[in-house]
Amino acid sequence: MEKLKNMWTGVKPVQVLPIGFLAVILIGAFLLMLPISVEGDNLSFLQAIFTATSATCVTGLVVVDTGTYFTSFGQFVILLMIQLGGLGFMTVATFLFIAMGKRISLKERMTMAESLGESRLQGIIKLAINVLKMTFLLEFIGALLLSIRFIPLYGLFKGVWYSLFHSVSAFCNAGFDLIGNYTSFTGFVSDPIINFTIMFLVIIGGLGFAVIVDVIRKRSFVNLRIHTKLVLIMTGVLIFGGSLLFLLLEFNNPETLGVLSFPQKILAATFQSVTTRTAGFNTISQIGLTDASKFLSIIFMFIGGSPAGTAGGIKTSTVAVLVMIVFSLMRKHDDVEAFKKRVSINVLRKSLAIFFIALTTLIIAVMIISTGEKGTIVKDVGFLNQLFEATSAIGTVGLSTGVTGNATSLTLSVLIVLMFLGRVGLLTVVFALGSKAEESRIKYPEEDVMVG
Q1: Which of 200, 245, 372, 411 would suit a FRET pair with 191, their CA atoms being 20 to 30 Å apart?
Q2: What is the model's pLDDT at position 7?
Q3: Position 55 in a domain
Q4: For residues 198 and 185, is the Cβ–Cβ distance under 8 A?
Q5: DSSP-derived 3-state class of residue 38
Q6: Burial code of 397-434, b = ≥16 C-beta within 10 A, e = fewer?
Q7: What's the mean pLDDT when you consider all of the chain?
Q8: Which residues are CB-neighbours of 287 under 8 A, at least 6 positions away?
Q9: Pairs from 153-162 (Cβ < 8 Å, separation ≥ 24)
Q10: Residue 90 has what pLDDT?
């Protein structure tokens, strides 16, 4: 016991997060492999690991149909993993520690700050408790709204369960559904209650807890932190800009929006714009999308939501900083500025690193997937669909064009790694694997390098 304690003492706070997620995935996979979890044949180890990773990393990609393959117990295990993955296990652990009267150590506070994207330790426990309260309140409200539609359709018990499951799945941006037969919400494409409730939960969950708390406290756009302002602006631009683009690109497509009335087209296009940024639900066929819309979806999935929330992707704030770098260069400014504030050099470096690492990881993953297990080029699903699936995994989105359901073991393994990296965070993994930072005492002479 003392040996285990010493081993844990040597673990850095940044290493706790990936280790914790991995532990939840392994425990969840074991539970899903039990006969009590499934209706028919037991899951294979790879299928169980894939499902557990997808649930814990709030992705939504599936190898078996959640609504028909799993029993109520199996679905509850998936829901629990979604909640733990969405909130972050350290947030839940902190609540349990407080409930048991256990003292929260400095290391645990540092890990908590890391998971919530906070640089300060002051007030971190209070923030974690507020995050829990806010999450459960919003999920409860979402479940109430969804029950208006689900209880009349499925009866009291099943309707309540469906409402709760989909509310948690939506707020956590997980994309798992119980509708059955891989249909997601395509049967509710014109239902305003389902669409607006799911979109509301997805957007709020994807904004990030720090942003929500800042908005509640300040209540004025002028007084908000620069991070909050950038997240809100980028989120608005992506939602409304994406809605317009999807509407134009799919307007006459008979496989998606073509058969809908104009108001229904607007609703479906808006839902598609929202869900591509890590939600994973769909009201229109993803396979039937035009190539232009698939590529637009890939861009949105790569961007994702915002930091310190339930969303994935490289994050809206990262893209905002990259855009500001370009504008700063165009205006020949030495500093990158926004709202009369200067962005720190450390943030600029992190943004560039996140973009480069994510893009490089995605390129390598797609190359592996496209070659298949035996080194032969897989041509039946198409490269764009493979890129779509890989981006959906690393962006923890969960939308699929059918690649995952018929994937080889090699492809599933690659997608598992991408989902894990996408949820834990690429920089977090890099820092966790890296050595202790050492301050360089030597300042070398500066010299220009020709670029562009």
Answers
A1: 245
A2: 47
A3: yes
A4: yes
A5: strand
A6: bbbbbebbeebeeebbbbbbebbbbbbbbbebbebbee
A7: 85
A8: 255, 385, 401, 402
A9: 161/72
A10: 57
Q: How far apart are CA 406 and CA 380, in angstroms?
A: 11
Q: What is the pLDDT of residue 378?
A: 43
Domain count, the chain: 1
Which stretches of the chain drop beneath a pLDDT of 50?
A: 1-2, 4-8, 375-379
Cα separation, 129 vs 20, in Å, equals 19
* Residue-wise DSSP of 207-249: H-HHHHHHHHHH-SGGGS-HHHHHHHHHHHHHHHHHHHHHHHH
pLDDT of residue 105: 63
- Cα separation of 447 and 452, whole Å? 16
Q: Which residue in this structure is represented by tokens 């809100």?
A: 232
Q: Which of 319, 299, 295 is CA-nearest to residue 307?
A: 319
Q: Please give the backbone phi and psi of residue 341, each rounded to the nearest 5 degrees, phi first.
A: -130, 150
Would you say residue 448 lies in a domain?
no
Rounded distance, CA 69 to CA 196, Å?
A: 28
Asked if residue 52 lies in contact with residue 29, where contact means CB atoms within 8 angstroms, the answer is yes
> Is the pTM higher than 0.85?
yes
3 state DSSP class of 400: coil
Tokens of 345: 């050099």
Question: Angle at the Cα of 143 (from 161 to 35), degrees rounded to 5?
Answer: 25
49 within domain boundaries: yes
Q: What is the pLDDT of residue 101?
A: 60
- Burial state string for 196-224 with b = 16 or more CB within 10 A and e = fewer than 16: ebbbbbbbbbbbbbbbbbbbeeeeeeeeb
Q: In this structure, are residues 283 and 270 in contact, taking their beta carbons and an 8 Å threshold?
A: no
- Amino acid residing at 230: L
The single residue listed with the structure tokens 């070659």 is 371
Per-residue model confidence as pLDDT tens digits over 393-449: 999 999 998 888 888 899 999 999 999 998 887 776 666 565 555 555 677 787 777
With H, G, I as helix, E, B as strand and everything else as coil, classify residue 304.
coil
In a domain? residue 440: no
Q: Which domain holds residue 405?
A: 9-433
Q: What are 75's two structure tokens?
A: 């679905």
Does residue 391 contact residue 362 with C-beta atoms inside 8 Å?
Answer: yes
pLDDT of residue 92: 63
**Nearest CA-CA partner of 362 in 317, 301, 452, 310:** 301
